[in-house]
Amino acid sequence: MKHEEYDVMNVEGGSHVKMWTRGVPVEDAARQQLANTAKMPFIYKHIAVMPDVHLGKGSTIGSVIPTLGAVIPAAVGVDIGCGMMAAKTTLHANDLPDNLGPLRSAIEKAIPHGMSPKTRSFKGRDKGSWETPPSPVDAAWGQLKDEFDTICLKTPRLKNTNNYRHLGTLGSGNHFVEVCLDEANAVWFMLHSGSRGVGNAIGTHFIEMAKEDMRTHFINLPDQDLAYLPEGTQHYDEYVEAVSWAQKFARMNREVMMQNLISAVRTVISKPFETHVEAVNCHHNYVQKESHFGKDVLVTRKGAVSAREGELGIIPGSMGAKSFIVRGKGNPESFHSCSHGAGRTMSRTAAKKRFTIADQIEATKGVECRKDENVIDEIPMAYKDIDAVMLAQRELVDVVHILKQVVCVKG
Hints:
Elements (H helix, E strand, L loop, with lengths): L6 E3 L6 E4 L8 H11 L7 E9 L6 E7 L2 E2 L1 H4 L6 E10 L8 H10 L24 H8 L2 H10 L21 E6 L4 E8 L2 H21 L12 E2 L3 H33 L12 E5 L1 E8 L2 E8 L1 E3 L5 E4 L7 E6 L8 E3 L8 H7 L2 H7 L22 H7 L4 E14 L1
Parallel strand pairs: 2-3
Antiparallel strand pairs: 1-2, 3-4, 4-12, 5-9, 6-8, 6-10, 7-8, 7-17, 11-12, 13-16, 14-15, 15-17
Helix pairs in contact: 3-7, 4-7, 5-7, 6-7
C-alpha cells in the first residue's frame, strides 16, 4: 500500500509497518525482522521505519517501536543512549592549518578512543579508557555517581563495570570525532558515542533477564531477542531506572568529549574562537515515555532520532560522506522521528572482504583520517547513499546545514 510519503507493510496477525524507504534498498531479512516485531501484542498503532533501516539484533536498526505495557531491552540495544553532538564555532575554513595532521593528533591525544583486543592474555586498563581522568570527568561523574550506586544495590553485577574511566571517551566501531565545514565554510565540531562499557553491561544484563523471564513463563517468541519486560514487574522497573541513567551517562559522555575536543583544538589554533553557536546533543538508541495520538506510550528509537516540530537533530553520513543538521517537522505518523544516519548495506565482515586500502584512500580523499585496513569496514560504499536517504524522509525533516568533514578520528 502506498501513501503520499511512505509505504505500508501489512503483517498478518500484527500491527502495520509504515516505511519511509522509497528509493533506498531494504533487505529481505530486515523486512522479516520488522514483521516479527510487529507481531508483538503490545505494539501501539504501528512501527515506523526510517530510510536507513537494516538488519539488527532482534529488531531492525532504523525503526521506531512504540509500546504499551512492555519494553524490549534488545530493541534499545547495548549501546544505550548512543547518539550525536555537534557544535558550530566562530572559526572559518581559512582559520584551519594547511596541514591538518597535528590537529588530528591533538584530538586523538585528548580523547581516549579504540578498544584493547579481547584476548585471554589481555590484562590491565582498556586503551580506550582514562588512566587518570581529567577534572571535567570528575565533575560529570559527580552528577552520576549517587544514582549509579543506588542502581548497583539492586543489580550488583554492574558495580565493577567500566564507568568512571569510560566517561568522556569515544569507543570503537562507527563512533567518531570530526571537524567539519558547513555550506558557508564555518567550522563545526561533531562527535558520535554512547554509554560505553557501563551501558553495554546494563543492556546485556536486562536482555538476559528478559529472556530468562520468557523461559520461566513459557512464552514463545518469533525471535528470542524480542524478549520483553512487562510493566509492573520488578525487572521492568529496574530496567527503566537503569536505562534512564545510562542515557544520562551517554549525554554527559558527549558533553565531556566536546569540552576536551575544544581544548585540543585550541592547542593547535591560536586564534580565539567561540563554540556552541548552534549546538545539538541527541540520542539515537534509547527509550522514553512520550505522548502520541492522545496516549502516553514508551517509544523505543533503535537507530532513529527525535524530530518534533522545530527540534534540531543530526543525521551523519559515513566516513568520507556529508552529514546533515536537520529541523524536525513533527510528523505524527513517524512518531516525530527521522533516520540516525545512512544505514549499512553490508556487514563489517563483508566490507572488509570486498574493499581494499586503496578503495578507502580514494573514498576519504581530502579528509585527514586513518586510511588503514582496520577502518575499511567504515568505508562509505558499505553504507546507503545519504542523498537518497535524505530524499526519502523529506516529509520528516528540513535540512538546516550540510556538513563535510575535513578531520575524522575513528575508534
